Each structure stands twice: as structure tokens, then as C-alpha cells.
Amino acid sequence: MSDVGATADTTPALSGGTRLRLITITVSHYCEKARWALEKQGVSFSEEGHLAVLHLLATRWAGGPRTVPKLVIETTGSNPGLINESSDIIRFADEHRASGKGTLYPEDKAAEIDSWMEKFDKEIGPHVRRWAYYHLLRSDRGFEVCFQGGTSSLERTVFWTSWPVLKPMYGQAFNLTEDGYRRSLSRLEAVFTEVDKTLADGRPYLTGDQFTAADLTLAALAYPAIMPPEMKVPKFPPVDRLPAEMRDLTLAWRERPFGKLVLRAYEKERHGM
Ligand SMILES: N[C@@H](CCC(=O)N[C@@H](CS)C(=O)NCC(=O)O)C(=O)O
Fold this sequence. Notes:
Layout: H1 3-8, E1 19-25, H2 29-40, E2 46-50, H3 55-62, E3 70-74, E4 81-83, H4 86-95, H5 110-123, H6 125-136, H7 140-146, H8 153-173, H9 178-199, H10 213-221, H11 223-226, H12 244-254, H13 257-269
Parallel strand pairs: 1-2
Antiparallel strand pairs: 1-3, 3-4
Helix pairs in contact: 2-4, 2-10, 5-6, 5-10, 6-9, 10-13
Bound molecules: glutathione.
Glutathione binds near residues 30, 67 and 121.
């Protein structure tokens, strides 16, 4: 069990002795999206954090696809349930939210929220991942930035021992070529510009005054681009220690309306609400 679990498991359990286990790659932004929703809505869970590749044992054991986040719903006397998509985990968190918590899906905005979420999953998720890995894996500093925190010391030892073999596998898996990087950057610019235009009328959040699942999805998936200081797991070093080109873009993006939304969402909606 990761030290993440120890901090996350603080809210009352679901009724009927149900236990929730969130299997993650701690650094993953899709996992951050699920973690944020569960914590925000006061749903009790423990997190089992892994390093990429080493997560495969856990996901195979749990069943379903190999991707994370994966929410395992354990109820005494029945087979565990599984939720394998981060957006479905947000929906679950909202449906099982603790009393006094507001919904992340105001009914009159449902279609708008779904449409933004689908767009962010497709246009930010894979492209910000490639953008970040492209920079981090080319820099020695990238190692310490990328893979710290929330995993067991045994996994960290196995991971670093295997790193010479794993590193080229990452390069291949994410197509970390110059061309691939440029394509991802232009996809990111397009969606960030669309968000900027939507926010141009001064609204604080995507659908108006209220923070919704759409804002949560944008902020969590864009966290590697903006690196909000409130990001606790994994804990990143300050922006000025990032590789130079990455740092410069992050600082420029923070000044844009979408970047300000991400920073505001982390400051106001991420912890202790
Ligand atoms: N559509 C999925 C995407 C999840 C996803 O891409 N997860 C990545 C981590 S960022 C993953 O599990 N990669 C490891 C693998 O494919 O084995 C969701 O929203 O949950």
C-alpha cells in the first residue's frame, strides 16, 4: 500500500461495508482526475500507487483493461466491482458524495460538461503526456521530477534497476519523436485556445460560476503543463528546476486564461473542501 493511501483514507466509508481501492500510476494525470473527484466528494478510498509498467501486475490481478485509474469496489460476500475509466470514476464519486457536498454535474449543464470532458480526454490526455515525457526523459532532472512519491520503496528499486531497459520502451510507447512532439503541441495549443475563447467573457469556470466535472477534468489533465504548486501526489520540485524549454512554456501557459483556471481550480477546489 502506498503512502498515498494513508492520506486519502480519511473520510467515512460507503454504507454496507464497501471498501474502495484506487489502483494508480501515481504520476498519471488521468489518475489525478479520479483521485481529485473521490477526495473532493468525500468518498473514502485507499490508493495503491505504482510506477508505470509495474502497474501491470496490479491491473492484471484486478481484471479489466490494463489502464489506470481502476477503482475496485469490494463488498463483503460478493465479487469486486470494477470501474475502469476516469470519467466513470468521477460520476461514481458524484453519485456517492458525502452529505453537504455539491454536485459536479449540475443538471442544466450536463451536455456541455460531457462535451468538454470528452474533448479534454482526447485532446489533452495523450498529448500533454507526450509533451511532458518528451522533455523530462531528455533531461537528467526529468528522472527526479517524473517518478517520485506515492509508490513502495520495493517498486522504486525495481524500477530504477530496470531503467536502462525501460527508458527506450517509454520512447517507443509514447512516440517521443520531434514530429510526434510538434503534433502534440499543436493539438494542445488548439484546445487551450478554445478554452481561452470560452473564458473571454470573464466567467471563472467553463460553464459559468460553478466548478464542475469539466473544470476538474481540464485542471487534472493539464496539470503536467501547468504544474500547480498545490499538486501533492506526486510532489514536484519548483518550476524553475524543470528543463528550460518546458519551464518557459509552463510559465507562459500559466498567464493564459486556461492556465489561470487550472491554477485557481487547484488553489480553491483541490484540497480541504
Ligand atoms: N480513457 C482512460 C485512459 C487512461 C490512461 O490512458 N491511463 C494511462 C496512464 S496516463 C495508462 O494506464 N497507461 C498504462 C498502460 O496503458 O498500460 C481513462 O480515462 O481512464
